[in-house]
From TrEMBL, chain A:
WD repeats lie at residues 132-164, 181-225, 239-289. Pfam families: WD40 (PF00400). The keyword Repeat applies. Keywords: Repeat, WD repeat. The keyword Magnesium does not apply. Essential component of the cytosolic iron-sulfur (Fe/S) protein assembly machinery. Required for the maturation of extramitochondrial Fe/S proteins. InterPro entries: CIAO1/Cia1, WD40/YVTN_repeat-like_dom_sf, WD40_PAC1, WD40_repeat_dom_sf, WD40_rpt. This is Probable cytosolic iron-sulfur protein assembly protein 1. Belongs to the WD repeat CIA1 family.
From TrEMBL, chain B:
Residues 46-59 have a biased composition (Low complexity). InterPro entries: FSCA_dom_sf, MIP18, MIP18-like. Belongs to the MIP18 family. This is Protein AE7. Keywords: Chromosome partition. PANTHER family: CYTOSOLIC IRON-SULFUR ASSEMBLY COMPONENT 2B, CYTOSOLIC IRON-SULFUR ASSEMBLY COMPONENT 2B-RELATED. It holds the Pfam family FeS_assembly_P. It comes from Diplogelasinospora grovesii. GO terms for biological process: chromosome segregation; protein maturation. The keyword Nucleotidyltransferase does not apply. Residues 1-66 are annotated as: Disordered. Residues 76-150 form the MIP18 family-like domain.
Length: 419, 200
């Protein structure tokens, strides 16, 4: 059952569900859900703990490969079903390496529906198969392209590296550096590939391949990267507007096409300046139609130049300002289109889109992890719900990850009418 | 250490009796800050501010959390007492004696309603190109993070006009990820531990 569009929802209530066990007792940085399976990977200290989203208990431990903290982890997408639904994770660590891990347990036929807690206690369930080395210092984030063919990593060394899978088969982990992008003036905090949507693919315009990468930096900017016809990765846009470190970014990946249009996915960015911005690509056909008006609107880059090299991205929304300190994380629901954010102020906020690129606040929870800072928030599908709740609760939940080492799921209830 | 190697070979040094202390206010002698804040050093273990155990109850009564957090309010003098005994990494004196830390440059914004307490400490490095400003700032931030309860947010900055690279140093000190990574650097933690030895 599809939830109503967020513009209809007046208000939401967030209620904490039982937190994941065991408690990690140390700062946890992020929790990343598996794209399809009921698993979520939480990075803390030099390890990753994988929790089951069905039971909220530990599934397995990814440890023994990094000498310093693991900042984030990402799941390899699009693994062939023939390989028995194997699990593959990439970790980004302060030790300057990205690590590729594979789950060693025999694939279970029931894996897709029921994840049982592994009996293995010593963290040997995962094999550290490849260390991707090259960054000079802390690797902060890694991201797979939608096909899984490219991996991007970023670091305090101001660079983004793109690695290409050159292995002969899925199990053959052989990665080559295909590009090193050095245009940021500060730490690159996060990288994210645009999802494979119809809107993305109708826009490649023959000059670039379909994959699009975005990077967020300590230099307050976001950059968009594409691969040109010569196989060179080039920066096609610099998104300027944030007044502090851009902590991260997330692409729109909403199954419901807005108004039936196949628009290029928008980009959400969040910053130390306590704001969340949404950026929209000015698509070419619109540009041609509006050509006569462009001068009047006051764009500062001549059309000729933009056509040749650059894409024109403009900030089309700034979400209502609730946060008072750094926003460390924001997540854009693939299912409902709602956005959730959190950060140093320990507040979790949910926003819904209204008509004409407007956004309103649907829910706010203060002290969501007591007095502690919250480092991450993500939407994920609910697998714990057994019975139907007659549409009062969202099919998705939020998961927050804090300095207190707690990973907390939240169920979301719709409140009808205004209060 | 050779004098010539120092960024500031001849800093002004205040004697201990010139430093601001509680005695000027109420005459009570102060013991070392460490003894007073011992119970705060490991905030995760227990304490009235740890709300994580009371999640189920606080969702029904949001005000409860604020009352739990409202333990004995800290004042600027107590913050000063925590950080002024930190040693300078170059000189055999404390940050208080070198006037790097000054009582009027400590600002506490107490919790109002649902906001957290914030402590802003503005530092005055001994010379305006002091290359160790970041290390000093980091020591102050780490000292306060360890000593204060988790409902305090700590901002450490260079006092305006006091340092050639204000913005760069301030941004670095405010970046949680960079601070976390720095504290995993053994060489740097050795320097910080040395600076903190005089805090015990």
């Amino acid at each position: 059952m599809a939830p109503p569009p967020s513009s209809v929802v007046e208000q939401l209530q967030l209620e904490p569900l039982p937190e994941f066990t065991p408690d990690l007792y140390t700062r946890a940085w992020s929790s990343v859900p598996h794209p399809t399976l009921p698993l979520i990977a939480t990075s803390h200290a030099t390890a990753v703990t994988v929790f089951s989203l069905t039971t909220f208990t530990k599934h397995s431990s990814v440890s023994g490969g990094h000498e310093r903290s693991v900042r984030s982890a990402t799941w390899k997408p699009a693994l062939p079903a023939a390989a028995g639904q194997q699990l593959c994770l990439v970790t980004a660590s302060f030790d300057g390496k990205a690590g590729l891990w594979r789950y060693k347990e025999e694939p279970s036929e029931h894996l897709a529906t029921e994840i049982t807690t592994s009996s293995d206690e010593d963290g040997e369930e995962w094999e550290f198969t490849v260390a991707l080395e090259g960054h000079e210092n802390e690797v902060k984030c890694a991201s797979f392209s939608p096909s899984g063919n490219f991996l991007a990593t970023c670091s305090r060394d101001k660079s983004v590296w793109i690695w290409e899978d050159v292995g002969a088969s899925e199990g053959d982990d052989d990665w080559e550096t295909t590009a090193i992008l050095n245009e940021h003036d500060g730490d690159v905090k996060a990288v994210a590939w645009c999802p494979d949507t119809p809107g993305r693919n109708s826009n490649s315009r023959g000059r670039y391949s379909a994959d699009v990468l975005a990077s967020a930096s300590y230099d307050n900017t976001v950059r968009i990267w594409r691969e040109d016809v010569d196989g060179e990765w080039v920066c096609v846009a610099v998104l300027e507007g944030h007044e502090g470190t851009v902590w991260g970014l997330e692409w729109e990946d909403n199954d419901k096409k807005r108004g039936g249009e196949q628009r290029f996915p928008r980009l959400l960015t969040y910053s130390a300046d306590a704001t969340i911005r949404i950026w929209t690509l000015q698509e070419e056909q619109e540009e041609q139609q509006d050509e006569g008006m462009k001068g009047a609107v006051g764009t500062f880059v001549p059309n000729v130049m933009r056509r040749g090299l650059k894409e024109d991205w403009i900030c089309t929304s700034v979400l209502p300002k609730i946060h008072t300190r750094d926003i460390y994380s924001a997540s854009w629901s693939r299912q409902s289109g709602m956005v959730a954010s959190t950060g140093s102020d320990g507040v979790v906020v949910v926003y819904g889109e209204t008509e004409g690129d407007g956004w309103k606040v649907l829910a706010t929870v203060e002290y969501a992890h007591g007095p502690y800072e919250i480092n991450h928030v993500t939407w994920c599908k609910r697998f714990d719900k057994k019975e139907s709740t007659e549409g009062e609760e969202e099919e998705e939940m939020l998961v927050t990850t804090g300095d207190d080492g707690i990973v907390r799921p939240w169920k979301i209830k719709r409140i009808s009418g205004t209060t | 250490m050779e004098k010539a190697a120092l960024d500031n070979a001849d800093p002004t040094i205040l004697s201990v009796s010139q430093l601001p202390s509680r005695r000027q206010k109420n005459g009570a002698a102060r013991h070392g800050p460490a003894s007073k804040y011992d119970h705060l050093i490991s905030p995760r273990q227990s304490g009235p501010w740890d709300l994580s155990s009371s999640v189920s109850s606080w969702s029904s009564d949001e005000d409860e959390g604020d009352e739990d957090l409202a333990i004995e309010p800290l004042d600027e003098q107590e913050i000063y007492d925590l950080i002024s005994p930190i040693s300078d990494p170059e000189h055999p004196h404390t940050l208080g004696q070198l006037s790097v830390v000054n009582l009027p440059d400590i600002h506490i914004t107490p919790s109002r309603g649902n906001t957290l307490n914030t402590v802003l400490v503005e530092l005055t490095p001994t010379v305006n190109h002091c290359s160790l400003a970041t290390v000093i700032g980091l020591a102050v931030r780490v000292r306060l993070e360890k000593a204060l309860p988790p409902n305090f947010r700590i901002d450490v900055r260079m006092k305006e006009g006091s340092h050639a690279q204000d913005d760069q140093v301030n941004k670095q000190l405010g970046d949680k990820e960079r601070v976390a990574a720095a504290l995993e650097n053994d060489q740097l933690t050795r320097v910080l531990n040395k600076m903190m030895e005089t805090c015990a």
